């Protein structure tokens, strides 16, 4: 079995895109740029770790499909940044800002297609299933993004709405990453499905962690300003839970705070943060993350694969959820 | 063999999209809308006609891949309309105008993925090749669109630039449509490739015809205002040829005319049109279309398939290039 570091290195090497040509430049430069500004590469790593439960043979027929997941993910970020009007990502200008909107649309488009080019390296015998899994997932990611945008216009959403939305927007791709590795590794269907569920539940935990860190993370480590979600009234797990808990005076206080804008940033962030602590939202989020993490590990057990072998995946999940950024 | 009308009908029936679900509405309604506002459905028809040279068995394994070509094409139109800031298409509001830009980006995105879902119905034994052909083509279409946008900022382009750009932006998808049908029909490689070339050359003729009709078409039949390309200084075959021919006085006249804007529309269109006639550009375009049409038909002959059987394709090409809109 490969170590965590060895898998990291394989993915890093593969992150320099294999392209037949790079013309026209305005189309392809943004792709190289997106790959160059970093990223945790979770999806290809999860894919390779899952694959590694079944095989040590790290050739093109698994590496390219693993990278298809990353390429697809990066494409969604290019388009999301246009739709959100985001100027920066990972401390760098977004493609939309660095070039322009048209270029961001089109280079995102070609990046999406490139992901299918990479997927096509999957072994012929699993290609139909790989294609089906990938396309189902990628369409769900679009659905999740649409729900996310739709929810912005609603005064409130339920916990169920939120879980459904992050399920589609984030969790399914992590789930797909795990299942893809298993599929290409030749795992039996129940193992593929258990790894899908592992990835899915890990994905839910991951997104709630993301929401949590945006408010309670360490700014130095996190690399970006704390409280962005609060300022934007983003319907995070924390806000949804807070709205559910707050009544009477606290409810009014929250509503008033939500009216505040960028100019009252510091006050808004600190006040809402305190409200989260007072109402037990912070603790509840920590418990929720732990619960989904446990559920994810239970799915790993269901694979019937020896703990010795699933250790990498378990460590990977642990590191993901204990991260500070 | 099916008649032209029977193939038309199969495509028409298939144009009502098969979707697992239609939620969220903001994501999927634009897809139904695009399919509902018409379109010549050239690409699936070419695909089915090519397939029909080899087989009469019109099942899901050919109809869905044929529609993948149309779905992909419609998605490019959604995104093109954002990038061009076009308000109308086929006399109807564009998706970008009818909904908004974010919805147009995302519904285009999911439509692109849906095309892969449909492509995946291709028979397993040809799926790897079908996927390779489709993805190569779709990436080329993006390249063509990027070149088209890049060229807008150049004072002039050569005939070669133009042919390269329309080759990528338009011709390869028609070529792919023909080859896809042959591939799924089980044709030998040389036949697949000859049909690709047929579609490609027909595509070039088709695009030049499009340019020609925008200036010299019959407004009533054409369904949209004549001269749009002239008003926008679009680098059509006509303009590229005109720039090449014009010198001295005519060159100066052309340059002055290109400075005119929407407010001088009638004058600009009539004057440039006259210049095209005077300089022999109109005739040259007619000859060029004829030449590419002939080259396309020569490719059909190269398939070695009996003229009796290729008659539908020949009639289809004929109708395409003799159209008034």
List keywords for this structure.
homodimer; 325 residues; mainly alpha; Farnesyl Diphosphate Synthase; two-stranded antiparallel ribbon; 2 strands; 74% helix
Describe this structure in words.
Two copies of one chain form a homodimer. In chain A, 74% of the residues lie in helices and 1% in strands. By secondary structure, the first copy, chain A, is an all-alpha fold. Chain A has one domain (4-321): Farnesyl Diphosphate Synthase. Chain A has a two-stranded antiparallel sheet with strand order 1-2. The longest helix of chain A is centred in the middle third of the chain and has 28 residues, at 189-216. The radius of gyration of chain A is 20 Å and the shape is globular.
Please render the helix and strand layout as text.
The structure is a homodimer of 325-residue chains.
Chain A: H1 4-14, H2 25-36, H3 42-52, H4 60-83, E1 88-89, E2 92-93, H5 95-98, H6 101-119, H7 127-152, H8 159-184, H9 189-216, H10 219-222, H11 228-231, H12 237-245, H13 248-259, H14 265-278, H15 281-302, H16 307-321
Helix pairs in contact in A: 1-3, 2-6, 3-4, 3-8, 4-6, 4-7, 4-8, 7-8, 8-9, 9-15, 12-15, 13-14, 15-16
Helical/strand content category of chain A: mainly alpha
How many domains comprise the coordinates of chain A? 1
Please identify, by name, the CATH architecture of chain A. Answer: Orthogonal Bundle
Helical percentage of chain A: over 70%
Please give the most extensive interface between any two protein chains, plus how many residues each contributes.
A-B, 36 and 36 residues
User: How many strands in all of chain A?
Assistant: 2
The level 1 CATH classification of chain A is: Mainly Alpha
Distance between the termini of chain A: 28 Å
In CATH, the homologous superfamily of chain A goes by the name: Farnesyl Diphosphate Synthase
Globally, the shape of chain A reads globular
Strands of the biggest beta sheet of chain A: in what spatial order? 1-2
Number of helices of chain A: 16
Uncertain residue segments of chain A: none
User: Oligomeric status of the shown chains?
Assistant: homodimer
Structural Rg of chain A:
20 Å
Which series of helices and strands of chain A comes N to C? Answer: HHHHEEHHHHHHHHHHHH
How would you characterize the largest beta sheet of chain A?
2 strands, antiparallel
